[in-house]
Amino acid sequence: MIDYKYIEIEYFEKKGFAMLSFNRPSNLNAFNYDLISEFCDALRTVMKEKSINCVIITGKGKAFSVGGDISEFKGYADPAVSMAKMAAKLHEGIRLIKSIKIPLIAAINGPCFGAALGYACSCDLRFCTEKGTFGAAFTGIGLSPDSSTSFHLPKIVGYSLASEMILLNRILNSQEAQRYGLVNKIFLSDDNFIEEVKKVVSQLSEGPIEAFQASKILIQKSYLNDLETHLEEEAKYIEKCAGTEDFLEGLNAFLEKRRPNFKKK
Fold first, then answer.
1. What is the mean pLDDT of residues 153-169?
2. What does CATH list as the number for 7-205?
3. Which end of the chain is more exposed for a tag (fewer CB within 10 A), N or C?
4. pLDDT tier at 194 (50, 70, 90 boundaries)?
């Protein structure tokens, strides 16, 4: 296994999932070029494991991530060139997240700001602790958004609130984030947060992987398709899923009033 400096990988192969953690806790997991490079490499490494059906993304210590490492911005010899390089690497990570067919879950254990908010919004589900806080933060230091924040945030919370978060730097607490649909669930115990998330992810990892993959594709395409095109896509993918062993198992389990035992086939 590769030993990364800023990313930790944990495999839970018997339960079918892996966890990637941003690992700069003394810097509140602030993103720098090396961390994002490692993240991209680590995620590619995890996806080579055929036994992995879900991935958790979280942060070590007290934060998910506060976004870009502002202390490093100060040292840029040419800020425009350096920021373009950083944005390109950040966007490589976003494209990678969106290309992955299995469910990705953001486990937000504290502050989630800037580029990290874009990364969390790119995941399929977002869980947080009561200490979760959320902000765009870009315009506060004279920048426009990156990391898909301006793409995903309006679609999740709506145009008006996204504009307020981006233009006025409004920060949401965990309760507000759940109210506006930014997070799916708040876990009340900080100490057991990751363990509780693992329980949910274990259930996901036992699910029908073909149906999950098709569902993710359809949800993503809903941003772009017109209705007629999307209906054609739905028909194509439900036909594909209906030809799987997992559909037969799910159907039999429903009729027999038992829990399905999906084989990922």
1. 98
2. 3.90.226.10
3. N
4. very high
